[in-house]
Amino acid sequence: MDALILARLQFAFTVGFHFLFPAMTLGTSLVILFSETMYLVKKEEAYRKITDFLARILGLIFVVGTATGITMEFSFGMNWSGYSRVVGDIFGPLLAAEAVIAFFLESVFIGVLIFGRNKVSPKVYWLSALLVFTGGHLSAFWILAANSWMQTPAGYEIFATGKIVLSNFSQALLNSSTVIRFFHTVMASWMTCAIMIAGIAGYYVRKRLHGETAKMMLKIGIILFAVTPLIQLSLGHLHAIQVIETQPEKAAVMEGLFETTKGAPLYLAGYVDEQNEKTYGIYIPRMLSILYNFNLNSEIKGLREFPKDNWPPVNLVFQVYHVMVGVGMLAIFMGLLGLFLLVKNKLFEAKKYLFILPYLIPLPHIAHETGWISAEVGRQPWIIYKLMKTADAASVVVSANQLVFSLIMFFLIYSLLFVMFVYLFVKIVKNGPEE
Amino acid sequence: MENIQNFQLLWFFLIAFLFLGYALLDGFDLGVGMLLPFVGKSKKEKDILINSIGPVWDGNEVWLVTGAGALFAAFPHAYATALSGFYPAMLLVLFALIFRAVSMEFRANDEKRAWLWEKVLLAGSGLATLLFGVALGNVIYGVPLNYKMEFAGSVLTLMRPVPLLFGIVALAAVLMQGASYAVLKTEDDLQLRCREALYIILWVNVATAAVYFVVMALIFPALLSNALFYVAVLLSMLGLAEILFSLRNENDKALFWKSSLFFWGLWIAATAAHFPNIIKGIDAPHLSITIYNGSTTLYTLQVMSIIALIGMPIVIAYTIFVYRIFKGKAQARHY
């Protein structure tokens, strides 16, 4: 295999693995902030126990996230030095600003959250929870701004040498996909945590463990589980409209639309025959156009409008995109079912529902990973949309042999991390909050 | 041109400052990680040592993340050349840092294999320190570069004697950071053992620093007419002498600052020899990546300066605030 494919595989694997962890930290920091605020106001012990329990889980998640995150910061130089030389002017400041403005804040105060319960006053502890929450979300903002710039670049000029330089920082930062991508990704993280907490607490309640603390946790989890997928539906909708407008070929690939169509259909599931340029499956006629601008006949651009050399892999993107949407729909259903049971006062006795809950924990991870694959693979063959091809971005001095070695090593080490993480996560959950 | 040169200069020193911050702060984490099996006898003592760095190592590591990010933003060519050129070494640095980070958390939750995670912590901390020193030694001593600013050497290039010497100097200095920090955070028998370790490490540093300054003067004769070099040597000697003095007087609180002063001296000598290079081209100085030919544009440097000059003082302020929360002797339990 050639070095480019190996470098891409390595980046996809390492960032895909890393993404699992920040996706859990953001939502967890939200629930910690909530329970700590409630503890400060109501002084109920159950809230303190929830915070302390989640802080222990957060410690484990955060450490694996940080450890695998450094790989990402090094990877642009190690594997994508061609890219780094060309875009250091824009991409570098976004990464550096993330560290100064956000990552420091999160990393310094997470020490207080995990080690400082008995060292600081309740107010300072609450402040630390707030700052970890703020730092984590700001961090996501800067990283997603950098990613968005690769999707919808803005605020730049191109020198005769081919170097891309910054001309307007705020335009580059707030390019046309930054804000919606930020909210969409944050909501994915909140969903991930909602289902994680509902799953853990559901297990406790079904086994009659940890009494009121578990019931309180389940309530928080289920309410978040009911609300976040619904908000995500509207955010995903807005994100899709943005993609149709700013990256029409990616939108066409996600929907499997080859011919520019007035009144385009929406596929629920299906298969794309890339050779014959045909999409098969179950679809709702005209639905894509309706969703786009509430007009039965609005025109959606098909893939044939664009040079075939610049098409991403169609079926792959189509499939992962539909998996994401499908998981989202399932999450909406399960979340609302939980809320219904809660409102009817039947949740704590609903054995079957509580039995299923823990098995839903991996579900949002599948959704955010497939969503991310559809966004990134859907941008191919570009590393920066319409400015730079992925093929021109790789390090010239790193050989295929070196990449085979590093890819195998990453695979082995990350597998070990994954096994240890799951083992210790389950162990912390089994130990549970303090009685 | 006048204008951009001021910013290039500023960023050279800001990045040197960020990496010095990393060396001093994560330096003591790495040092404690290496010393753990040698000075900690019981599980309780090892818990105390880990808990002495537990609340702060995360924040300390961000100095590295920020330094690397700043290098990317200010001098992308240096960032690209060093990380892709030193690929095998950088890979090992990553693996070492990953294992260093997770080993402490895994040890706390996986009591059955605590012995294993302690060994992993030792290996990760030691390897990361050695390789940081070797990498720094390579960019300062110089590596073969081609006219496209790409690294033109091999793995063997990275392991030449001078860069290896930098690695050993780094190991000794980081061990001293760790030992002096451990003396500050421990009590009784454990503290006594940390003090004994520090005493041995002190003499190792006397030897490595002497070799380091002599080698630097031989490789960079210009240093002999540079006042900064003499300041660096004096600061280092002062740091070492004061550690000896403080050890005799059992003045535990001063030790860490003296060790940092020593490290700072090493750093000043390296910076003085290196300026204005970021990666020196060996045999062909005109191919060197310098702050002048490797930087981003004026506008990017200006934007970055605003972020750094407002952001970093705030970071330093809340970092001090959190260190004050955890001041005093470390305990065996933290939950």
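qc> The longest strand of chain A covers residues 266-273.
qc> done
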